[in-house]
Amino acid sequence: MMKSALFLAAALVAATPATAQDSELLIIAHRGSSAERPEHTLAAYERAIDQGADYIEPDLVATKDLVLVSRHENELSGTTDVATREEFEDRRRDKIIDGQRIAGWFAEDFTLAELRTLRAKERIPSLRPANTRFDGLYQVPTFAEIVKLVRAKEAATGRRIGLYPELKHPEFLLQDAGIDMVDLLLRDLRELGITPSDPLFIQSFEVGPLQRLKQRGGGFKLVQLVKPEDGPADEPAMRYAEMVTPTGLAEVAKYADALGAYIGLILAPDGTPTTLVADAKAAGLAVHAWTVRPENDFLPANLRTGTDPKGKGCGDVQLAAMLKAAGVAGVFTDGPLKGRACPSQ
């Protein structure tokens, strides 16, 4: 999910940060507490749970032997040490994924046993240098292990913790490797005893997998992801810009329960809300906003603290408060929002 390019009105900066901590606003830990631990590791997920996240978000890809594992992309070199492993040099490939040529090492070309030999690393070390001290410590987790962690933390804390998995590139994996992500996810949910009554959202930028889950999934909550540019990879004639119109939202509501929308679609450049949240609610869709991040580099200019791109302040809490005021039901965040004291400016 992309960097925010908003320039919010200074008047809105004074929005009360405490609203970002309201129980009504779902806090979705984006790849875990990825501002403090390498993303999509059990350590990142546990850190986020300990910080009070309502949901943790594992992005799911598949191994060659059909095990769901958590990586932001099926290409592995950005978040693991695979590029340094001589034994896997011959696995390097070029692939066309959603219209883009990507070079690297791909999860679907590795068995789980092979993937287990890799170790996670920080994806953006220039902005999160403190996270590099954890490089090499953690394996790539399976979806089943993430569920096991959540259940252990629920038992320890006495509170429910939700899961918010995203199916990554399902159309590509189906066409390139014959891997059906919908089948794999439904298999795992069934085997893990997860039902629609559990706190679970399933999200995708594509349309077909969500429609199939609607038909086959037995009532799980589904989220259509949208962004300003392009369109769903499995629907070449469709554009996200059309999907967020009132007519498009009515179509989305036929199979989805919520819209996962880029912040720039929710707040205009001057910081005022667009009509998206109201239009989505009129269609029967909740809106979850992505992504709130703590570093200056990801924040609007007038929510930054100092000039260091990796510097942190209270801008992320304030941005979440603005989104709350705009009517969103939840926010994806890279860092903790709950329990933080952050005075208004």
CATH fold group: TIM Barrel
Compute the number of helices: 11
* Strand order within the widest beta sheet: 7-2-1-13-12-11-10-9
Strand coverage percent: 15-25%
Helix coverage percent: 25-40%
- List the uncertain runs: 1-22
> How large, in whole angstroms, is the Cα Rg?
19 Å
- Pairing-aware structural class of the strands and helices? alpha/beta
Taking the sheet with the most strands, its summary is: 8 strands, parallel
CATH architecture: Alpha-Beta Barrel
Task: Describe the structure in brief.
With 345 residues, the protein is of the alpha/beta class. The chain contains eleven helices and 13 strands.
Notes on the protein architecture:
- With 345 residues, the protein is of the alpha/beta class.
- It has one domain (10-333): TIM Barrel (Alpha-Beta Barrel), CATH 3.20.20.
- The chain contains eleven helices and 13 strands.
- It has helices spanning 42-50, 112-115, 143-157, 170-177, 181-191, 208-216, 240-243, 246-252, 263-266, 276-283, 315-326, and strands at residues 26-30, 55-57, 59-62, 68-70, 93-97, 100-104, 162-163, 166-167, 201-204, 221-226, 258-262, 286-292, 330-333.
- Strands 7-2-1-13-12-11-10-9 form an eight-stranded parallel sheet. A three-stranded mixed sheet has the order 4-3-8. It has a two-stranded antiparallel sheet with strand order 5-6.
- Helix 1 (42-50) packs parallel to helix 3 (143-157).
- The longest helix has 15 residues, at 143-157.
- The chain is globular and about 55 Å long.
- The model is unreliable at 1-22 (pLDDT under 50).
